[in-house]
């Protein structure tokens, strides 16, 4: 299978597909799959454009809306992850992935799929240490802060990906793994980007969680973008780090430029018996820039269009770790070996029973082609002067694809949870005020159709975590610090084991990811009936 890999797309889909068409014409071949490593910019209309974290002078509709509206159709199956310049509101509707347009599939916060037997994993966003331990607490309309934090990588997605076993052929990320430059031509990289030197010395160039994933997953290929330059590396692995790892027989790209040849010569040459990850970062989509690479990947022979399927192991991991979802802004901690006395499960690599359980929930693992437009697409004829128009952010919306997926698998939609946790009403799935526009160009779900109600969270987790009112007003005024808890905890903070003396209804189990913290004068916060 011939796979085209794109660096930062930045909304230039027409240019990318035109480049692929040129490669196919010149080489007399057929590209089966396009992978994009972030900054995809799936902006459907002007409201989506307002959720992108870029200066206003760089806000540009580009061409994605044509594929969303149906004016154009992607000529090749396209799979992408999110970066740090995205229509965050649209992608947040699809936390577990889904179609953003016909033949264009988003992997979600993190995801694993199979295309003709090729196993593809990926993680969206970029790493920022101050947000890594938080939950997915953001929702539209975004503030100046949440407009950026919404695309920051969280620990839950890294934790889930670490549970994978077996072969992973391709891994996609926007960031680079920390230290990856040590396995390629570092000197040449610094000649291209001399300002990288300071970040290399301080260890800030790249993402440490991605370095951990690289060692844990050991994919045959790892593709990235973000730093707007082409860089190749060969990363050998300690075979004992991953039991049962199978060395991939994938070949390198059929088109190599002079710089890549030099990089390969400078990189360490591992033994053939040692598992190796072939890392490649690519540039953004601009003329005379190295933004696209074609790679030949061994795959199952399938006639016709490529077959996109869910990964059974990933579905089982999502199901078994559903209780670990957090939508709170404060830090929280996931189970691990060093958590003291082990009283809960910390390893979620699926058992055979768990794999059978999740596969039984689906008729087959093929991803359904259930894309539907839920908002009007951008109209250049009516909004040609959009850069001088005042447009507000969109209201929060739920996506019918996520509703169907979560209901089938029996897991929570994080966007539903964060709305409930913040006292918001859940909107009907796929219905907003904008869907009432009855125009042929929008081709939206007709208003008279029955609208699917939002999914009721299967875990029935208790989201209202506010304390009962104080027993007496006098007690409330005697100590102003009774609930003076820090909003954030340092990474080495320990969690108190003594639970507050507040009874909870037996019929509603407490959320497993809620920390039990000691509170001063906790007696005054007991329920009134006590």
Write out key terms for the chains shown.
530 residues; seven-stranded mixed beta sheet; 2 domains; alpha/beta
Number of helices: 16
Structural class: alpha/beta
Radius of gyration based on Cα positions: 24 Å
> How would a textbook summarize the main sheet?
7 strands, mixed
Number of strands: 13
Total domain modules:
2
Low-confidence stretches: 243-268, 432-451, 464-512, 514-530
- In helices, the fraction of residues equals 10-25%
Describe this structure in words.
- The protein is an alpha/beta fold and 530 residues long.
- The protein folds into two domains: 2-359; 465-530, no CATH class.
- Helices cover 22% and strands 11% of the residues.
- It contains 16 helices and 13 strands.
- The protein has helices spanning 13-27, 46-49, 64-69, 88-92, 129-132, 146-149, 155-161, 186-192, 196-202, 208-217, 258-266, 312-320, 352-359, 400-409, 414-421, 473-478; strands spanning 2-6, 33-36, 77-80, 98-101, 104-106, 110-115, 118-123, 170-172, 221-224, 231-236, 276-281, 292-296, 308-310.
- The strands form two sheets. The protein has a seven-stranded mixed sheet with strand order 10-11-9-8-7-6-13. A six-stranded mixed sheet has the order 4-5-3-2-1-12.
- Strand 4 and strand 5 form a beta hairpin.
- Helix 12 (312-320) packs across helix 13 (352-359).
- The longest helix has 15 residues, at 13-27.
- It starts with a strand and ends in a 52-residue tail after the last helix.
- Residues 243-268, 432-451, 464-512 and 514-530 have low confidence and may be disordered.
